[in-house]
Amino acid sequence: MAPTESPPTLHAEGLTKRYGRRGRLALSDVNLAVPSGRVIGLVGPNGAGKSTLLHLACGLTEPTSGSLTVLGSPPAANASHLARVGFVAQNTPVYGSFTVAEHLKLGATMNPAWDRSLAERRISQVGLNPTQRAGQLSGGQRAQLALTIAAAKRPELLIFDEPAAALDPLARRGFLHSLGEFVRELGASAVFSSHLLGDIEQVCDYLIVLCDSRIQLAGDTRDLLAGHARLISPRGESGWMPTGFEVISTDHSGAIVRGGTAPEALPCRVEPVTLEELVLGYMARAAAVPTAPATAAVRRAQR
């Protein structure tokens, strides 16, 4: 008998969230199906709805309409489902008056599948003193502690809401390294929300671009990059844009496009699109404004 296929990590249909009867629309008609076993990068500008989507996935809030399932069940459906999801919120919250060891003891008390050996091993590897209070730890150390607690639950899904945004580059590198190790060791899926595209590129293999409360782009990162291109306009020529493409964004020097004619048949230079250009292109289209970083990239390419 063929093995049973795992349910999607996240599956949304018409998912909408509004705060208050006539309040701010945080998510609008989101449709999404993310396969299991992926490390998902969730990117978008402030106010796009990223934290709202993650809070819905953790069961911290409920949708106004539509549906969302996480690992095949409604978010936080019961205690068993809660144990399958580990969540690290913004600013990696820990209890300042608790020692590192007390955090691990609390985690063991609250989680039936708690992996004591994993927790103690990771605490030792990142150099945390079990007797030190969390309030005395550096930002990077607090992030490592929060990550260890989330992972020692042995969840099937780890969710991170901007966990490394406030860390210095060295601490952020250590955090991302630990995140990758935990995902591999646990065989878990992960959702990683960040403004830092370098972080997304380093650890994620699936991309979701969320802007203006809607999903603008979602899919396997390699497939998305392969399916887009950067067209560099011929110098001094007008009307150069070939037909047959979906134009994502343009500036005075070129365009980011999807699909279309074979590169050798085009009257312009074709270059691979970077992750930064891809994300900024979709963000620009959603906001209907030019992308200055993308323009700068085209200028560098023309030199």
UniProtKB/TrEMBL annotation:
Keyword Glycosyltransferase: no
UniProt superkingdom: Bacteria
ABC transporter domain sequence ranges: 10-237
Protein name in the entry: ABC transporter ATP-binding protein
GO molecular-function terms, A-Z: ATP binding
Entries under InterPro entries matching the protein: AAA+_ATPase, ABC_transporter-like_ATP-bd, ABC_Transporter_VariousFunc, P-loop_NTPase
One matching Pfam family: ABC_tran
Entry keyword annotation includes Hydrolase: no
